[in-house]
Amino acid sequence: MYVAGLAMPPSLGESWLWKHVDPIVAVVMTVLFFLLIIPAFREMMPYIFADTPAKFHVESFQSEISATVSNQLTS
After folding, report:
1. N or C of the chain: less Cβ packing under 10 Å?
2. Rounded average pLDDT over 8-37
C-alpha cells in the first residue's frame, strides 16, 4: 500500500483507524471550524449588524455631510 509516496505495511492499512481516517478528519475539522468561527462571529457582530452608540444621531450626521458636500460643490 502506498500513501503520499510512502510504502506502508499491509497490516497498517487494514486497521480500523486507517480505514476511517477520512471521516474522522472531516468531523474533527468541522468541529474545529465551528469552535473558531463562533467566537470570531461574536467579535464581528457589532460591525456586521451596524450597532451604533447611543450618542450617534443619524440625522445630524447626514446634515453635516450634506453641508460639507454642498460647500465643496459651491467652492
Report:
1. C
2. 84
